Amino acid sequence: MTSSHLVSIPTRRAHSNHAEVARSIGIDIISGRLGEGTRLPGDAELTATFGVSRPVLRESVKTLVAKGLLSTKARVGTVVRERSAWNMFDPDVLAWHLDAGIDKRFLADLAEIRLAIEPRAAALAAERRSEDDVAAMRTAMAQMEREPSTSVAFADADLALHIAIANASGNPFMRSIGAVIEAALRASFVLSAPVETADRDTVLVWHQRIIDAIADGNPEGASEAMIEVIYNGRRRHAQSAARTDQE
């Protein structure tokens, strides 16, 4: 990867031989150890490397082909595909990014897709929310206020609030996208945790403004507050990256 590395957030191990082989090769691809256009070694070498049978290896390759990371062609072999072909909404591909180590490019791409979806989700939530939806948001907000900013519990509460907003939008596509990128969002929130008191206050104020706008039926206010929350997170990511680069 060309962007500077920030942090690796290990995910759960695979539960089968073919899934574990796919995970290992997938992480090598995402980390850049197997670059675009690289041809994988032959079956004999790979089965020896991983200690698995040929059918297990072939099942692993089929999995990676389906996720857009590899292509197989007669007389060419199995080749690593370009990043633009990867299925970034695949839960495994997202998990492997966390294992390989999140970098600035990943965080920037995640922020862009959030800006494309979440402000609209917040606006729809302001039009369609139920009493239960607002209660779920307020519960998550109360947990954010209770927990230390740098704790996993704070990030989990932040995530719960954003998922509650997606649910309140009433749009099943937005709900699904929120569920799919949940692990990436949690990692993003961990990395953008507000360390300074002033940053924490800003985070809490703007999240509360989203909830208030949704509860008041104010789509424009909800959308604008969500945009500010995402941009605030990007600024903290940049600060975190700068500190990491200096270490």
TrEMBL record:
<dbReference type="InterPro" id="IPR008920">
    <property type="entry name" value="TF_FadR/GntR_C"/>
</dbReference>
<protein>
    <submittedName>
        <fullName>FadR family transcriptional regulator</fullName>
    </submittedName>
</protein>
<dbReference type="Pfam" id="PF00392">
    <property type="entry name" value="GntR"/>
</dbReference>
<dbReference type="InterPro" id="IPR011711">
    <property type="entry name" value="GntR_C"/>
</dbReference>
<dbReference type="Pfam" id="PF07729">
    <property type="entry name" value="FCD"/>
</dbReference>
<keyword id="KW-0238">DNA-binding</keyword>
<dbReference type="InterPro" id="IPR036390">
    <property type="entry name" value="WH_DNA-bd_sf"/>
</dbReference>
<dbReference type="InterPro" id="IPR036388">
    <property type="entry name" value="WH-like_DNA-bd_sf"/>
</dbReference>
<keyword id="KW-0804">Transcription</keyword>
<dbReference type="InterPro" id="IPR000524">
    <property type="entry name" value="Tscrpt_reg_HTH_GntR"/>
</dbReference>
<feature type="domain" description="HTH gntR-type">
    <location>
        <begin position="15"/>
        <end position="83"/>
    </location>
</feature>
<keyword id="KW-0805">Transcription regulation</keyword>
